[in-house]
Specification:
Helix content: 25-40%
Strand order of the largest sheet: 9-10-11-12-13
Number of helices: 8
Strand content: 15-25%
Number of domains: 3
Structural class: alpha+beta
Mean pLDDT: 92
Largest sheet: 5 strands, mixed
């Protein structure tokens, strides 16, 4: 346990390292914690100079109090200290759910003290040092063990003064014994220091929060405008779509009237829908006839019904022959020499079967086509 090796002994109110005094009891030093005699061990070649209690003691304060008091003595003697960097991120959320961020930072900075008070009782917590510089006070806590001090630091956070921690808990006995290393760790090394409370950092964070609030208002306004613009576009699209649906419905209704009239005319003319051929053969012949009609009469241009597979004149919006509600009309091109291959195509085509499955009954029969 490293606390058994005490780095500093006290003599006449002065803290001394073991290599600075005579060996053994001749050092004439007492423990900084319990005030009992110490034995200096400074003659070994492999052992780092240190102190031990002259007699077995349960003292656990000698190491901590010695290191802490030595650190405070350095601050008092040098009247200077390097403050740590500060870093905090402020965030705010817009009504659209977007998070705005602002980094609040400042770099380490050295201060010169006008005065330093040692071990000041602040009521609920002890300040190991209170530095006054430029009319402001800075509370200093010296940490010499890994134990967390959350409760003390919560109390410090409610005191209207900035406060920092100087963490010396990671120093080895060898580093403490080296005056230059120890002085650097206490006074100038920003990595050993951290803010418990920074009034400057809080002021900057408050400014950043106000700036963010302004940005949030601006973003919310832009978002509302954009939302209004998009809503207007969506409303226009909806109106357009509704108009298209209405137009389509009206056109389909008019088409159905034309279909019914054509169907009635075919019934009056006693045009048979059936003959001796099978249903498949009849439907195949109708598909072939309409394909040839497109090649010979419509210049190879036509539209095909996705349900009955019969071709109609180019530009037809609806199929005149079947009454399928889900059919669509697709534009196709019919080659001029289709007559030479149409029957071979039909042998391996699924169109007749699909036509019968999707449109088993034709409302209107295509006009007879005389094949060449």
């Amino acid at each position: 346990m490293r606390e058994a090796k005490i780095p500093f002994g006290e003599r006449d109110g002065v803290l001394l390292r073991a290599f600075e005094v005579a060996n053994g009891l001749a050092c004439d030093c007492v423990c900084p914690g319990c005030r009992k005699p110490l034995n200096a061990a400074n003659r070994g070649q492999k052992v780092i100079p240190h102190f031990r209690h002259a007699q077995a003691e349960d003292c656990v304060r000698g190491y901590k109090d010695g290191v802490r008091r030595a650190a405070v003595a350095l601050i008092v003697a040098q009247q200077r200290l390097t403050l740590p960097a500060f870093s905090r991120q402020i965030s705010a959320t817009t009504i659209s759910g977007h998070t705005l961020l602002r980094d609040v930072t400042f770099q380490p900075a050295a201060i010169t003290a006008d005065a330093v008070e040692r071990f000041v009782d602040l009521g609920e917590v002890m300040a190991h040092a209170v530095i006054t510089a430029g009319g402001r006070q800075l509370i200093v806590r010296i940490k010499v063990s890994p134990r967390a001090e959350h409760e003390r630091y919560q109390r410090l956070a409610h005191i209207a003064a900035s406060s920092i921690e100087i963490d010396l808990s990671g120093l080895s006995l060898e580093q403490i014994n080296d005056p230059a290393t120890f002085e650097r760790a206490v006074l100038s090394d920003p990595s050993t220091k951290s803010w418990i409370r920074s009034l400057r950092g809080e002021m900057l964070a408050q400014r950043a929060a106000k700036d963010l609030a302004t940005d949030v208002v601006a973003c919310n306004g832009q978002w509302e405008q954009e939302r209004g613009r998009l809503q207007a576009i969506e409303d226009a699209r909806r109106v357009e779509q509704e108009a298209k649906v209405t137009t389509h419905a009206n056109a389909l209704a008019a088409h159905r009237e034309v279909q019914l009239a054509a169907a009635a005319a075919q019934r009056d003319a006693d045009i048979p829908a059936k003959d001796g051929r099978s249903a498949r053969q009849r439907r195949e012949d109708l598909i072939v006839d309409q394909t040839l009609r497109a090649a010979q009469e419509w210049g190879g241009q036509a539209v095909e019904c996705s349900a009955c597979c019969l071709l109609s004149q180019p530009g037809a919006q609806f199929c005149l022959y079947c009454a399928s509600e889900s059919s669509t009309m697709s534009r196709i091109l019919v080659p001029a020499d289709v007559a030479a291959t149409i029957h071979l195509r039909m042998r391996c085509s699924a169109k007749p079967e699909r036509s019968l499955r999707l449109a088993p009954t034709l409302l209107v029969q295509p006009a007879p086509f005389t094949r060449d």
